[in-house]
Amino acid sequence: MPGFHQDNRMFRLKTCTFTSPRLPSCIAFILLFGAVKAGYGQRVYADAQQSSPTQSLIVTLSQVSNPARAVDSDTSNFSTLSVTLGALGAITANQNLQYVARPKPTPATPIIIKFGSTASLLNLLGGFAVQRTNGGRNSVVQPSYSGAQLLNLLNLFGGSQVGTAIIPPNNMAFDGVRLEINTTLGGLLQAFYYFAFYITPPRPSVSELRICTGDSATLAISNFQPGYTYRLYTSQTGSGEVPGATTTTNLLTLSSNIGTGNYWLEARESDLYPSARVQLAVTVVPRPAAPNISLNPDAQY
């Protein structure tokens, strides 16, 4: 299929003495390359779109122009959503970017979108709203993010005219994310929708790790890629990062001090864009006692 490529490179796995032989279920992933997608091998981009119809009343009130640009192979271009004068908030334009042929995000997957406008987003956020969807443009998943809520999710670039929003998971199923603009601000508003993607979860070499008291154990990340940071957490979503359980290589070493329990491993592109977390069960076991060997001095050999 044009626009994406599956990487079949092999990775060497390394386990320690106390690792379980049971491997985690394989997580399918796709490496997407386009005009400017090289180097983003753990991103999975949305591959389909649906746009609101053009509204006209003598003049065009709302429209989405070049909608396919938000799901093509070039991340530097964009679709354009626009609204003109209308009753406050009554005129809207929206576009949903969806996963159809590519692997869908899980309910625990953060989704990242890039969008912009002709002026500072800081002054225009009251006219923008972002919401996950499940099954199409009008099948929205709560909550909707706008205004100050959306500002809290944004990483702003280029004089705040362009930004990326990291939409956190809430353990509800979804397969797309919708950008909407409206006439709440009382005038012409344009939005540029570049893309939506999620980060492929890490694939640890084991799903269960046994560590002797006072020792450490190492697991490998089989889909490691340079430029990614891997962090361990005590919960599937939210906070709870485990201090010191971080690596920027394909090997993560854990001390027995971590304690027995369930943990979750996360990949972060540039230590910024997070993946869904993968569960890792850790069991700390007592160190085996040294064998007690006695010799009989009178033994004949």
Question: Can you tell me about this structure?
Answer:
InterPro entries: Ig_7. There is one protein chain. This protein has two domains: 43-198, Jelly Rolls (Sandwich), CATH 2.60.120; 208-285, Immunoglobulins (Immunoglobulin-like, Sandwich). A hairpin with a 4-residue loop joins strand 10 (154-157) and strand 11. The protein has two helices and 21 strands. It is elongated, with a radius of gyration of 25 Å. With 301 residues, the protein is mostly beta strands. The termini are far apart. The chain is 4% helix and 41% strand.
Describe the structure concisely for a colleague.
The protein is mostly beta strands. 4% of the residues lie in helices and 41% in strands.
